[in-house]
Amino acid sequence: MAHAFEKITVTIEDGVMVIAFNDPAAMNAVTTSMVRELGAAIAIVEDAAQGVRALVITGTGRGFCAGANLSDPGALLGDGVPDVGRVLEEFYNPLFKRLRDLRVPIVTAVNGAAAGVGMSFALMGDMVIAAKSASFLQAFAKIGLVPDGGSSWLLPRLVGRARAIELALMAEKLPAEKALEWGLINRVVEDADLMPTAMEIAGRLAKGPTKTLGMIRKMMQASLESSYDQQLDLERQLQRAAGQTADFQEGVAAFLQKRPAHFAGK
User: Fold this and answer.
1) In this predicted structure, what is the pLDDT of residue 207?
2) Phi then psi dihedrals of residue 129, to 5 deg
3) Burial annotation 188-199 (CB, 10 A radius, 16+ → b, else e)
4) pLDDT of residue 198
5) Rg value, the chain, Cα
6) DSSP-assigned states of every residue in 141-174
7) Under CATH, to which class is 2-206 assigned?
8) How many CA atoms lie within 13 A of 226 on its CB side?
9) Averaged confidence pLDDT in the chain
10) Three-state DSSP class for residue 99
């Protein structure tokens, strides 16, 4: 099943939605209109009735996403003065919060450059898979801006303060294999293997107990801010909810019967 968009492509097959940034002439630089389309695509995922059980985000052409499109007319006020803060408030920040709270796992397949807010999109993946040719760049300082897309919150937690501030201040390209060494991403594969690998992982997740996987996402995100006691309490709450799912009953039955489990995401 395919959906018609202008600046992204969206397909759904076997419970996996693939969203691809689709403005290769601009290295998939993001505009406000593209963010609107992304929001419409995410709404499909948010609707459980649509049957999407995993999401893959990637880019078309040579790059994943080159960041915000600096010539985007939607970022200008009536007098032609840019108000980047307004654009974040109205467009980007709500979208990133929706991705954070998504009910299904996210796999990002990073092909080529992920720069600026494009790097933020890449790092929203629960599983971040990069091609060997991929790279990551906190490009903001190069044009006199500060990191956004949640990267100033996420990077120190992924790679530590020293490496995070180096990425932001120096604005130097980080190759995929170095990003893997730093613990920024999950896997690096040959370019030709990127989408097959991402789709295999997404397919595996989509066949899993996706309601529980959504709880795992919530749990891991909360752990970044919670105390030990708070996290134990959240584990209790979510384990109680997980134990009431049909997938838990199926998982136990499959274990006892020594057969593969067939999860329904319920």
Assistant:
1) 97
2) -110, 125
3) bbeeeebbebbb
4) 98
5) 19
6) GGGT----TTHHHHHHHHH-HHHHHHHHHH---E
7) alpha beta
8) 14
9) 94
10) helix
